[in-house]
Amino acid sequence: MTGSISMYPSLEIGVGVLSVIAAVLGYLSLTDQLDTGELGPVGRTALLVAILLPFMGLIIVMARRIAVVWLDRRRGLAGARLHVRLLGLFAVLAAGPTILTVVFASLLFQTGTAFWFSDNAQTVLTNAESVAQAYVEENRQRIVGDIFSMGGDLHSYALDLGTDSELFDEGVEWQLAARNLTEAIIFTPVPGGAYQVIASAETNGALGEDIVLAERLSTEAVSRAAIGETAVLTGSEDRVEAIVRLDPTSPFFLYASRTVDPKAVQAAEQAADARSEYADLLDQSRDLQWRFNAMLGGLAIMVLTVAILSALWLANRLTAPIARMASAAERVGEGDLSARVEIRYTPDELGVLARSFNRMAAQLETQTGDLVAANARAETRRRFIEAVLEGVSAGVLAIGRGGTIELASTNATDLLSAPAGRAVGQPVAAFAPEFSDLIAKARSSGFARGEVDIHRDTEVRTLLVRVDSVPGADQLVITFDDVTQQLADQRRAAWADVARRIAHEIKNPLTPIQLSAERLQRRFGRAMEAGRDADIFGELTGTIVRQVADLRRMVDEFSSFARMPKPVFRPENLQEIARQTLFLQEVGHPGIRYRLVADDDLPALICDRRQISQALTNLLKNAAEAIQSNGERPPEDAEIALFLRGDSGHVLAEICDNGPGMPVDMRERVTEPYVTTREGGTGLGLAIVKKIVEEHHGELSFRDRQGGGTCAVMSFATDVLRSRLQSDEFETEQTSEKV
């Protein structure tokens, strides 16, 4: 690309030289100074193409230059506007004088040609030609008259003296001298087309030694003279020749001539030539005017073209350093501090400015490099700290002066349910208002620690928060971790131990108590006579049996919660399990309408059938009890819907009721043991469901139902359960092989 660009100046110079040569050839062709007659049509066409091609190349070169300048201006390049202004200024300065010169020259030429080709000039030439021709014609008529008179006199001499006498010859010579003629010949035609000379006379040897009349005389002239006319010969321009017959009855003819004044003849010829040339010039005047105007126009175009090219060259020379400096300044402004201005014109002010700019850019580059290096070291240190913080499960916040967050780990934003990347720059009081008390305590004592409950999107979390003050700086470091699940697990483990102990201590005496009450009823109930005592005895023993059954059911729940059997995973039809469970609930709660909605392509669920059935039963039972709160009859629109869906590697079982709903603050604690919102509940049903779901690698969550009520959602990861099934089958095969 650089080679092609550097080629353009040489190409432009070459095109300019060729254009000058073509202009010279065109001028020579227009003025007929170049002989093109021998070239032929093909050669003339080739010459025309050779003349036009350089001009076309010159137009293309100039158009390219102008297009480059215009495109640079459209792109907003540095120096482009100045380039255009300089080009316009030079073009106007060159065009004005050139156009005035062309107009003035054209008017001057038109005025001069109008004078030279006026009617007066044409009249002068015509009159001069007429005068010269009249003078020559008058001499001719006078000479013809003299020859005619001389013929009459010679006829008399012939009759009186005879043609053979010397006196006749002397008479001819005397007539010749008297009439100032040049030569005279008396002849008579003879058979064979020849002429016989009878007598002759001359002055200054005009006839010469040999006289051949047949070469001078024409048959037509002799014939005209024979009938009595004076035949004037036209063969000679410098003399007048005529033939006359001496007498109509005479056989003799006179040929005589007189030399005309050469100056008069030359003047007449010059007048005729001048008149002819003037007529030709008059006919060619329009063509001359067109040629002159065309040459002036071509010259003007050439001058304008050279002026524009020179303006382009000069403008480029002036604006190129400024454009380079502006371009370098723009690059520096965009951040490229390695930009430098190429110094080509060292002596002038532009060179000084370019050197100053380069020194400034070099200093900026050095200082910026130092700053970038320092910033890179700080950034590396910061990234290292962030990487360390990202590897810590706890959330970390760095609080600067004014209580603004300067650093926040990803876990911190996740634990506080905040959008990632938006914590930095916010006040900690707005980002985590629950930490305000601990922050105030840390500012006064330098350290604070405690548990904080936060509410985010209908979810309550318990965070263990530690706030440390940075010595010597008004900064704080807050670390916190989510201990909600840990506390729940601790409570669940404690309650499991309590349930195990209670089940053990209560279950042992229950059977003897129940057997004793039944035995008393059988033995003494029959012996007692019917009456009030018998009724009271039967009621008391029945109460004991019923209460023992209730205690046994409670102990069974304790046992189920404390010692949940290990699930046995097999592919099961979840829709069939749900249908059977719903059937049992419909029988037990006929006042509630149950509805099952399942996907057609619901995949098989790898699970423990008994445990999943127990979980569905507990959830459906809780939903029914929520609708029938306080022992009231269910409303007519009471409904429980069970939705089964498969979605992105998960199977969802969702139980929705239109009961009173669940308080928001209870959703995280409702699955803990012995936590219940229902009067008389044991608080173990949802705890057992959560344990079953966790054993199946799933999640249990609650949400509000649209229109009122609660939805309990069990989500199972099918891929995890499938890998668990394969792992159990492998362990079973290994155990069988060992056995």
**Which blocks of ≥5 consecutive residues have pLDDT under 50?**
1-5, 732-739
Question: β content, as a range?
Answer: 15-25%
The number of distinct helices, counting runs of at least 4 residues, comes to 19
DSSP, total strands: 17
CATH topology of the largest domain: Heat Shock Protein 90
The Cα radius of gyration reads 69 Å
- The CATH first-level class of the largest domain comes to Alpha Beta
Distance between the termini: 84 Å
Mean pLDDT: 73
Q: Please list the strands of the largest sheet in the order they lie side by side.
A: 2-1-5-4-3
CATH superfamily of the largest domain: Histidine kinase-like ATPase, C-terminal domain
Describe the main β-sheet briefly. Answer: 5 strands, antiparallel
Under the CATH scheme, which architecture of the largest domain would be assigned? 2-Layer Sandwich
Protein name: histidine kinase
Domain HAMP: 316-369
InterPro entries: HAMP_dom, HATPase_C_sf, HATPase_dom, His_kinase_dom, HisK_dim/P_dom, HisK_dim/P_sf, NtrY, NtrY-like_N
Keywords: ATP-binding, Cell membrane, Kinase, Membrane, Nucleotide-binding, Phosphoprotein, Transferase, Transmembrane, Transmembrane helix, Two-component regulatory system
